[in-house]
Write a structure and sequence with these properties.
Helix content is about 5%, strand content about 40%. The protein has about 180 residues and is mainly beta. The chain contains two helices and 13 strands, in the order E-E-E-E-H-E-E-E-E-E-E-E-E-E-H. The protein is globular. The strands form three sheets. The chain has a six-stranded antiparallel β-sheet, with no helix packed on it. A five-stranded antiparallel β-sheet has the order 9-8-11-6-13, with no helix packed on it. It has one domain: Jelly Rolls (Sandwich).
Length: about 180
C-alpha cells in the first residue's frame, strides 16, 4: 500500500499495489502494522457495505459525537464515487475544511477518514457498491450529520443530487447548531 497525506490533518489516501498475472491480481487492502507506522487507528470493529442503484445518489455527511467518534477506511468495490470528508475538530488547523477524492473499483484507492470528520459520498455511476471498515460500533444516540448543501462548507458536488434520504437532506445547517459539532 502507498500512503498519501491529504490536505486535511490526519486523513490519508491509500493506493493499493495490485500484483497481477494471468489469473488476475492480488492486493493487500489493510495491514495493522503499516497503519500503526503512519499513526492511524488499526482496530476496526465493523465492516459495512452499501449499494446505490442510481448515479447522483448522495449519502451523508455523517459522523458520531465524542466519545463515539469513528475512523473509517472507505473503498469503492463497484462503480465510482466522489468521497467528501470535512474536519470537525475545533483544535485542528483544517477545521471545517473539506476535500474530495474519486474512489473507483478500477483506481484501487482507499480513503482513511479519522475520528472527528464528517463523511459523505456521491455516486458517479449506476450500481455502486462501497465497503468500509469502522473503528467504533454504531451508536444511534451519537449520530449526527451536516447538510450536504450548507453554504458554510461550499462543497462542489460533481453531479446534481438524484437521490438522498430525508434524514440527510434535513440535517441542520452549521449556523443553526446549538451544540458543538464534534
Amino acid at each position: 500500500m502507498i500512503f498519501h497525506p491529504t490536505t486535511l490533518n490526519d486523513a490519508w489516501l491509500i493506493e493499493l499495489e495490485p500484483r497481477g498475472d494471468e489469473r488476475g491480481y492480488f492486493a493487500r487492502t489493510f495491514c495493522a502494522e503499516e497503519f500503526e507506522r503512519h499513526g492511524l487507528l488499526s482496530q476496526f470493529v465493523q465492516q459495512n457495505a452499501s449499494r446505490s442503484a442510481r448515479r447522483g445518489t448522495l449519502r451523508g455527511l455523517h459522523y458520531q459525537m465524542q466519545p463515539y467518534g469513528e475512523a473509517k477506511l472507505v473503498r469503492c468495490t463497484q462503480g465510482a464515487i466522489v468521497d467528501v470528508i470535512v474536519d470537525l475538530r475545533e483544535d485542528s488547523s483544517t477545521y471545517l475544511q473539506h476535500e474530495a477524492f474519486e474512489l473507483t473499483a478500477d483506481n484501487h484507492r482507499q480513503l482513511y477518514v479519522p475520528p472527528g470528520f464528517a463523511h459523505s459520498f456521491q455516486t458517479l455511476s449506476d450500481d455502486v457498491e462501497v465497503s468500509y471498515l469502522v473503528s467504533a460500533p454504531y451508536t444511534p444516540a451519537a449520530e449526527r450529520g451536516l447538510r450536504y448543501n450548507d453554504e458554510r462548507l461550499s462543497i462542489d458536488w460533481p453531479l446534481a443530487v438524484t437521490t438522498i434520504s430525508e434524514k440527510d437532506a434535513a440535517w441542520p445547517l452549521i449556523a443553526d447548531r446549538t451544540e458543538k459539532l464534534y
